[in-house]
Amino acid sequence: MAIRVFSILLLFLSFTNLTFSLYEDQVGLMDWHQQYIGKVKHAVFHTQKTGRKRVLVSTEENVVASLDLRRGEIFWRHVLGTNDVVDGLDIALGKYVISLSSDGSILRAWNLPDGQMVWESSLQGSMASKSILNIPKNLKADKDDLILVFGKGCLHAVSSIDGEVLWRHDFVGESIEVSHIFHSHDVIYVAGFVGSSEFYVYGLNAKNGELLENNHAALPYGTFGELLSVSADMLVVLDDTRSNLVTINLNNGEISYNQKHISDLIKDASGQAVILPSRLPGIFALKINSHVLIIKVTNEGELEVVDKINNAAVVSDAISISEGQHAFAFVHHGGNKIHLSVKDANDWNGDLLKESIVIDHQRGNIDKIFINNYVRTDRSHGFRALMVMEDHSLVLVQQGEIVWSREDGLASVVDVTTSELPVEKEGVSVAKVEQNLFEWLKGHFLKLKGTLMIASPEDVVAILAMRLRSSEKSKMTRDHNGFRKLLIVLTRAGKVFALHTGDGRIIWSILLPNLRKSESCEHPVGLNIYQWQVPHHHALDENPFVLVVGRCGPSLAAPAVFSFIDAYTGVEAKSLSLSHTVAQVIPLPYTDSTEQRLHLIIDFNQHAYLYPRTPEAIDILKREFSNVYWYSVEADNGVIRGHALKSNCKAVDEYCFDLRDLWSIVFPSESEKIIATVTRKSNEVVHTQAKVMTDYDVMYKYISKNLLFVANAAPKARGEIGTATPEEAWLVIYIIDTVTGRILHRMTHHGCQGPVHAVFSENWVVYHYFNLRAHRYEMSVVEVYDQSRAENKDVWKFVLGKHNLTSPFSSYSRPEVITKSQSYFFTHSVKAIEVTSTAKGITSKQVLIGTIGDQVLALDKRFLDPRRTLNPSQAEKEEGIIPLTDSLPIISQSYITHSLKVEGLRGIVTVPARLESTSLVFAYGVDLFFTQIAPSRTYDSLTEDFSYALLLLTIVALIVAIFATWVLSERKDLQEKWR
C-alpha cells in the first residue's frame, strides 16, 4: 500500500513539473516583444505595379530591412552585427537588394520578396578608405547589372547574378582618397584627391578594368570635405578656408577648375559653410549657419543662387519621374508645421508639390528625407516622403497627411530605470460597487458555464469581451502584486520614453531640449538616467521624478547638463547647464524631507558637487560626511582608487568638496590590463546571512555593498579570441573591498582570455570567459563567506537577540573570509549577464544570460554552486545540491524569450515585483522584450489557469459530504439509543 501511494505521489510530482513549462496560448499574456530597426541611413523605394509596395532601408544599428509602404510594418530584416556597419544600399536586376558593409569588404545580395541571402562576396583590400557602392543603371555586362564597389583602396566590378568579382583594380599605390565614381559609355571614371590639393581622375575599361587614362591637376589651395557630383562631368568642393567654392570640370578627361567666393553669391554670408550631401542634377545645397542656399551650376561652370531658405532645411536626392525630368524635395520648419516642397530640377519657379504638415514637436527637426513618386488617376505626378526625424523616428507623409510613423529611437536604448504607477484613488460610489458586484457574480457564473462546457456561443462571446474589459495588466494604476510599472528609458537621440510594463505601449515621451544639437552644444550625449525623487509617504500628493544626465560631447571634459522629468506626465520640471563636467555620478543612500535623493557629481578635475543644492542636503551630508566612500577605475592606466570627501572647495561654492585618496591599487601594465569591473546593486535585498550546510553547520555570507569584482587580462589577450596563444593568455580576477582597498580574493585562470561578462549578487559572483586550451567558453563562480562569525552558532543567543547578523559591520575591521569557487564549461558566447531580484530576497536566484543568439536563458543558481560534487551524499541531495558535471546544461524550456529573439541584445534589467516569487525582466537591443519570471514558481499566489470552478465544486461536494455524514451519524446515534 505504501509503495502504491508513493508511486502515485511521484506521478503527481511529474505532472506538476510538466505544468511549469509555458503553453503556446500563454505566450504574450505576461510578456511582450517589440521589433525596431533604428535610425535610417539609406532608403530605396520599390513601388512596381506588381507585388507589394515597399521601401528598403539600412540603419545605424546595422539593420537591413524591408518595410511595408502602406503600414510601416516590417516584411523582413537582418541585423548584421555590431562591427558590420552598412555603407551602402541599392537594388540590382529589380529583384536583389544589394548591401555593402564592413568598410567596403562584404557585399551581399538579398532576395527582395522574402529577404533570403542569395550570395555574399568578400572583397579584399589593404588600405582604409571611404566605401562607395555604385550600380549604374545603363551599364550592362551580358544581361548582368555591373556592381561597382570601392573599398579598402580597391575598385571591384562584381556580377549582380552570382556575386563573382569580374575584375579588380588596386589604388593602394596611388594613395588616392576616392570620392566619386561615374561612367561614360564603356569607360568608368574614378576621381579623388591625394592629400588635399592633388586631384586625380582615372579612366578604366568597364569590361576588364584596364587603365585607359590617368589625369591629374594640382590645385593652388587645399580643400575641405568631400567632393560632390552635380553632373556627369562637374564636381564641387569647398576650399580649406570654407569660404570659397571650387568647381572642377572633367571634359573628356581634361581637368579644369574655377573658384568663387561665397560672399559673391550672397551678401552678409558669415560662418562656416558646409555642402549638404544630396545628389541633385546641376544643383547643390550649401548650409551657412541656419541658412540653406540652393545653388545651380550652369553648363559653363558658373554658380547661381536660385533660392535661400532661412530655417533649418533638409534636401533629398533627386529622382527621375520621366525621361529627362528630375524632381527633388526640400523641407523646413515653420511654426508648429513642416513645409514640404517638391521642385523640378530644371524649372525652379514651379512647384510639383507644396504641402504643410502638422507634426509632433517632440520628434524634433528633420534629419533626412527620401522621396518617391507615383502616378495619380489623372495622370499627374504624386509624391510620398519618408522622413527621418531628430529622435530617430521614421515618418511617411503623403497628400499632406502622416500615413504612418515608427518609434525607431527605441532601438538605441542607453539606460533604463523604473517608476511606480499612481495609487488608485479611493472613494467609489455605492452604485458603482453594486454594479461591480453584479458584474462579478455574472462573470463568475459565465466562467463556471464555460468550465463545465455548457456555455452557449453568446456566452462564449460575452466571456471573451469580459476578459478584454477586465484586463488588469494595462491599467494606469498600481496593482497589489506590483506587476504594473513604468519602464523609463533614455535613447541615444536624447529622448526619454515611459513604457507600460503591461503591454509595452508608450505612455509619454519627451525630446530633451538640452540634449538637442545646438550652437552651444554641438555633440550632445545622453549618459544615464536615475531615480531622483521617489515619494513614499506622499505618494498620493506628489509625483516621482527622474534625473537625466548628459554632456555636450563625448569627452569627459565636456560640460554637463541635467534634466528633471516628472515620471507620470513626462513634463520637464527644470533643466540645468552645469558649469562643471561629469566624470562619475554617485547616488547616495540618503533623502531629504521632500524625498529627493542626494547625488554626488564627480567632475573631471576631481571635485565633488552635491545635488540637490539645498541647505537641508548640506546638513544631511555633513552628518554622514565620514560614511561617504566611492571608487574610480582608470582602465587605461590600470589603476583603481578609493576616495572620500575632504573639505569644501577653495571656491565660493559651498556645495563643492575636495577629495582625498584613501588607497590605490596599481596593476602591473606589462602583465595585466583591466577589462571588466562589476559591483552589487545598491538596492539589492538579502533575506538572510546564514546558510545552513548539509551537516547542519552554518556558514555566514560575507555581505557588503562595497565589494568590487575586477577581471584583468594579459596584454596580448585583450583583443578578440585567437589573437593570443594559450601560453600568452591568462585572466586574473580580484574581489576588492572599495572602502579599504583590501584584496579579499585573487585567482588566475591560465590559458584564458576575455571578453569577460560578470554579475555580482549577495556574496557571490559569476563570470564568463573563453578557455583557449579547451577551445570552449567557461563560467566560474566565487562565493565569499565570513569566517569571523563562524562561532555564532548558539541557538539561545539567536533567540535572546545576542547576535544580530543583519547589523552593519565596518570594513575597517579586518575580515576573516574564505572563498569557494568552481568552473564549468558553457556552450554559448554571452552578450550580457544579470541576476533575478525579488522584493525580500527569499526566492532562489536565477542567472539570466543573454546569448549570442539574442535570446535570454534563465539558469538556476544551483547549477553554479561551488559545492557540487560527483557523488553527492544523501544529505547533500536533500539540500538540493546537483551532481557535478563538466558543462552547464542548456534546457530549451529555460529560454524566457521562448522562440523570440531580442535582435542586437545589449542589456538585461531585472526589477523586483511586490509579489516575492516574481521578478520582472526587461531586455533591450534593437528589439525590446519584457516578461515576468518566478524562479521558485508562484508559491505565494494562484496561477492564472487555476480552476476556480473545480474549487467551488470541491467545496460544494465537501459541504454535501459533511451534511450527509452528519445525518448518518445522527441516525446511527438514535438507533444506538433505542437499543
What does this protein look like?
- The protein is mainly β.
- The chain contains eight helices and 64 strands.
- Helix 3 packs across helix 4.
- It has a six-stranded antiparallel sheet, covered by helices on one side. Strands 50, 51, 55, 56, 57 and 58 form a six-stranded antiparallel sheet that branches. Strands 26, 27, 28, 29 and 30 form a five-stranded antiparallel sheet that branches.
- The longest helix has 31 residues, at 948-978.
- One of its GO terms (cellular component) is EMC complex.
- Keywords: Endoplasmic reticulum, Glycoprotein, Membrane, Signal, Transmembrane, Transmembrane helix.
- Residues 761-978 form the ER membrane protein complex subunit 1 C-terminal domain.
- One of its GO terms (biological process) is protein folding in endoplasmic reticulum.
Task: Fill in the keyword field for this structure.
979 residues, six-stranded antiparallel β-sheet, 8 helices, WD40/YVTN_repeat-like_dom_sf
- Helicity level: 10-25%
- Derived from helix and strand composition plus strand pairing, the structural class reads mainly beta
Note the total helix count.
8
State the strand order across the main sheet.
43-44-45-48-47-46
Q: What does the largest sheet look like? A: 6 strands, antiparallel
The share of residues in extended strands comes to over 45%
Number of DSSP E strands = 64
Q: Give the terminus-to-terminus CA distance.
A: 38 Å
Radius of gyration: 34 Å
